[in-house]
């Protein structure tokens, strides 16, 4: 028996303006969701800075009313807007990145969607002989987030970033 695949289409939106990436309707989440529905999309990717600052129940209700799905949450704004990253030399920024990811994981669980890890890795700059230290920081942060995501039954997707943006 041959397995059938159904293609779902979506585009990225954000509740706030962002300094990067092709986000449609950045700054107006409701308008973006309405446009997705009107244009016949199946859902959206939410590009978020901080899930805990959102009116999550209102978003979930709007998605239900529009019969739309969130397929994934992108996490890069935590780095690009706030500087939180897994590769930071600053231990507090790494801790903040992990806590921010946990908030995203909780929201992803409520939305029954995936979480994308890409930009939150940071702009990794490796000096000769220091690759191991940077790799250890990133791995430690990533493993903490993976363990938390596993508890919540949330899949984390690793997004390869263009080499011009990071190491």
Brief account:
This protein is α/β, with parallel strands linked by helices and 167 residues long. Helices cover 41% and strands 13% of the residues.
Structure explained in plain terms:
- By secondary structure, the chain is α/β, with parallel strands linked by helices.
- It has one domain: TIM Barrel (Alpha-Beta Barrel).
- It has helices spanning 29-38, 56-66, 77-80, 91-111, 131-152; strands at 10-13, 43-47, 69-74, 114-117, 156-158.
- α1 (29-38) packs parallel to α2 (56-66) and α4 (91-111) runs parallel beside α5 (131-152).
- The longest helix is centred in the C-terminal third of the chain and has 22 residues, at 131-152.
- The chain is globular and about 50 Å long.
Number of domains: 1
Number of strands: 5
State the major sheet: 5 strands, parallel
Structural class, by secondary structure, is alpha/beta
Keywords:
single chain; 167 residues; alpha/beta; TIM Barrel; five-stranded parallel sheet; 5 helices; 41% helix; 13% strand
Topology:
Layout: E1 10-13, H1 29-38, E2 43-47, H2 56-66, E3 69-74, H3 77-80, H4 91-111, E4 114-117, H5 131-152, E5 156-158
Parallel strand pairs: 1-2, 2-3, 3-4, 4-5
């Amino acid at each position: 028996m041959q397995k059938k695949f159904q293609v779902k289409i979506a585009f990225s939106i954000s509740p706030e303006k962002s300094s990067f990436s092709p986000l449609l309707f950045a700054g107006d989440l409701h308008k973006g969701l309405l446009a997705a529905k009107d244009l016949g999309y199946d859902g959206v990717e939410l590009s978020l800075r901080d899930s805990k600052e959102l009116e999550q129940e209102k978003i979930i209700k709007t998605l239900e009313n529009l019969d739309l799905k969130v397929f994934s949450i992108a996490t890069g704004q935590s780095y690009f807007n706030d500087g939180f990253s897994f590769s930071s030399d600053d231990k507090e920024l790494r801790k903040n990145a992990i806590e921010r990811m946990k908030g995203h994981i909780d929201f992803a669980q409520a939305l029954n969607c995936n979480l994308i890890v890409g930009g939150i890795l940071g702009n990794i700059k490796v000096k000769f002989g220091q690759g191991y230290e940077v790799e250890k920081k990133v791995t430690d942060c990533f493993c903490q987030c993976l363990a938390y995501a596993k508890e919540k039954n949330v899949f984390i997707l690793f997004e390869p970033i263009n080499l011009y943006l990071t190491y």
